Give the backbone structure.
Amino acid sequence: MMTKHILMGSVAALALSATMALAADKTIGFAQIGSESGWRAAETTVTKQQAADRGLDLRFSDAQQKQENQIAAIRSFIAQGVDAILLAPVVATGWDAVLQEAKEAEIPVVLLDRQVDSSEDLYLTAVGSNLVHEGEVAAEWLIGAVGDKPCRIVELEGTTGSSPAIDRKTGFENTLKGHDNLQVVRSQTGDFTRAQGKEVMESFLQAENGGKDICALYAHNDDMAVGAIQAIKEAGLQPGKDILIVSIDGVPDLFKAMSEAEANATVELTPNMAGPALDALDAYWKDGTMPPKFIQTESKLYTQADDPAGEYDRRKGLGY
Ligand code: AHR
């Protein structure tokens, strides 16, 4: 009996070390967009951690928000002969040629958090949230909060041409249809950054009677909302009260703002895209298992009633 246990133990250990050896031999290239937001910084931290935990050699490239840099990084990863490429595509269009090159080099590409408009056979899978649904959740919250009152909304859009900017706008607008008391009166890109969120919000405030004609802000990410909160305070108004604020990501600073009643709601986007992506790659490397073309992460709404101070504490050390 004892011998059998020892034997089974050694077989299990051998199998485990074979898997570790398989993973340890692999090199991954990560073509990241940049560090435009707290969420993006957290995604980078989590991806590096996930790769380290699995014994993978991760080569990281920060494209400084430029598609041409991401394309150059992918070409460099192909030349280095990596075993897989993770790509967070800054915009949705213009990827066909480089994805085709990766395919011809037999290097699987996994998309993280954003989509491309290329043919599905050019990448292995995409990990991300339902971006249209995030916009719908934000709009549903606002409809509930405003009721029948007239409400002039300003919108801070994400990076022009990126799938979250396109889809979050679509989901929000579609859900407002039939609720004629709610109207988006101004909409402009803040490029997913805190600085541009503040700057564009200042121009909205100026154009809308010092902000007195604005009932709500919908920001495509939390960082732009945090910048806008600063602008609203500097204009002498109370964010979260005079102007309702709903955004997307669930970063610690937004939870802090909610705990201080300066923001109202956020739709969480997990920064752990790498976990499901590397699981899919492990299975693919092991026996050729093809993952589904889209691996969806959860989108959860948080409001001031959902212990924002506790959520801030739980997240503040996680690399945001
Ligand atoms: O693609 C996900 C979006 O990109 C996040 O919501 C935003 O913060 C980031 O820049």
The longest strand covers residues 182-189. The pocket of alpha-L-arabinofuranose is lined by residues 36-37, 39-40, 113-114, 164, 192, 221, 223, 248-249, 269 (CB under 6 Å).
